Amino acid sequence: MGKNTDLPQITGKCRFCGQLRIIETVGEITQEKADEMATDQCDCKEAKVYHNRQQKIKKANEWAHNRFEKQPNIITLFESCFEKVTNHDIKGVSIKEGEWTHSITLDSDGFLTVKSGKKVNEEVNFS
Ligand SMILES: [Zn+2]
């Protein structure tokens, strides 16, 4: 690495409070990306809430990717549900998949939860 005191700079704007921030970039970045980075680094309440939600969605998506590795359609469905539930667009949702029922909810403490239950039936016949 050579000595480089002249990193390119771009001004990003928090999408919530509008605070401007100078972003030092290694390569060229778009204004949109700069705004996103400024939002990430911003300390305003809205930005923190937003960041927290994004983190939650990200973790939930990772779970879905592990859980439904070979079912991209299910993963897409979960991803969209996680986003809607976390953003309070819907209160909760149940997804039936095979023998499983998965309930996605957001509780009052802000925890995003997936409860998975499997229907178990046992029948024994004697004649
Ligand atoms: Zn802000």
Reported for the largest beta sheet, the result is: 3 strands, antiparallel
Strand order of the largest sheet: 3-4-5
Q: Return the structural class.
A: alpha+beta
Strand residue percentage: 15-25%
What small molecules does the structure contain? zinc ion
Oligomer: single chain
Order of helices and strands: EEHHHEEE
Any low-confidence stretches, pLDDT <50, length ≥5? none
Shape: elongated
Radius of gyration over C-alpha positions, nearest whole angstrom: 22 Å
Number of strands: 5
Name the average pLDDT: 91
Number of helical regions: 3
Number of domains: 2
What is the helix content?
25-40%
| Terminal Cα span | 81 Å
Explain what the structure shows.
The chain has 127 residues and is α+β, with helices and mostly antiparallel strands. The protein has two domains: 33 residues, no CATH class; 73 residues, no CATH class. It has three helices and five strands, in the order ββαααβββ. Helix 2 packs antiparallel against helix 3. The longest helix has 23 residues. The N and C termini lie far apart (81 Å). The relative contact order is 0.10. The mean pLDDT is 91. Zinc ion (ZN) binds next to loops.
Which SSEs are present, and which pair or pack?
Blueprint: E1 9-13, E2 20-24, H1 31-41, H2 45-67, H3 72-86, E3 92-97, E4 100-106, E5 112-118
Antiparallel strand pairs: 1-2, 3-4, 4-5
Helix pairs in contact: 2-3
Bound molecules: zinc ion.
